[in-house]
Amino acid sequence: MDKQIEKLLNKEAKRQNGGIELIASENYPSKETRAVCSSIAIAKYAEGYPGRRYYGGCENIDGIERLAQERAKKLFGCAYANVQPHSGSQANFAAYKALLNLGDRVLSLQLNDGGHLTHGSPVSFSSKLYDFHFYDLGIDARLDYDLIARRLDEVNPHLFLAGYSAYPYEIDFKRLREVIDSHNAQSQTHAYFMVDMAHIAGIIAAKLTQNPVDYADIVTSTTHKTLRGPRGGLILSNRLDLAKKIDSAIFPYAQGGPLENIIAGKAVAFREDASPKFVKYMTKVLENTKACNDELSRRGAKVSGTENHLFLLDVLTSFGIDGKTAQAELESIGITTNKNTIHGETLPPARASGIRIGFAAATTRGCSKKQAMQIAGLIYDCLTRAKPKKDLRKAVEKIADSWKDVNDLSF
After folding, report:
1. Rounded to two decimals, what is the model's pTM?
2. Backbone dihedral angles phi then psi of residue 258, each to the nearest 5 degrees
3. For residue 334, how many other CB atoms are within 10 A of its CB?
């Protein structure tokens, strides 16, 4: 192996093995998935779709991609799946292209309340190509469906967007569908319903929350995060009349050759996600997340509460520091998180008032409910400076050493 790369990879494995990963958008795919991602499929160019390639020699690649499509459709109970997006952002780009004309209006969640960059951020392509408007959360920091109904009538969007990157509660997709249908019945502008389920896709696959595919026109996702697959994107729908538009928005509009080795990895992950073992895993993720949230609350910290795989910790109110500082402090003892804006944010995003905490990755390695509560104590002690950092670092390493090696995570 390239010695310089080998050295850096070994250092990264040591960092991950010796620490606690609490970034809600990260997870560890199985070694079976990883092996497929580095397989001979990496060498094949396959522009186009199965049976309609721009290159010869694609019969086996077609089989891989069709298998990934069928497994995705079965996993989420839908009629159509595009497994080619290189990322969730690419999936969103294609979904917008399939549903909208340039400059069309989109109604999305206020970004400080948990939206994604591709949901209308000023620095994203999304705000450059489309006219984004926003709805706020209610005073309890939860979705206010009556407020959404009013904003739909005020904005008359061509697209309503749900699904978030830092929203710790359940989403009532059925009610959103009803609100949108009611609006559409009275408006001259028809609003499509799109859901970006990237963060909660694993919870949905495990049938532990509502499935947006039953209600939305298009659903996009990543395949890592809670799905525990390789990094990539996914588009699902029951609207077969939109299939051609979605396909052409991915190729040839947004992408060239698909990453067939990654698509093979997605197929493996979808098979794992359909097993009873995955349901048990995802149940543990929810249990661990709540245990950590509740223990921090018991100690006096201001937390959001949680109904999924993540929660928000208001570090400005709880500890008098901003999210950037809290992230650095925790990283110094081996706990990795990310700064995050919170409802009612008063600081710029580069600093933020909170941090986002998720347990998908830690649970994959073997985190128990008891350890999740211990981790809450370590977070609290670190941010209150109640104990020396060297002692906290040793405690982190003790927990991490009891878990599975990141390079040997077999599903």
Report:
1. 0.97
2. -70, 155
3. 22
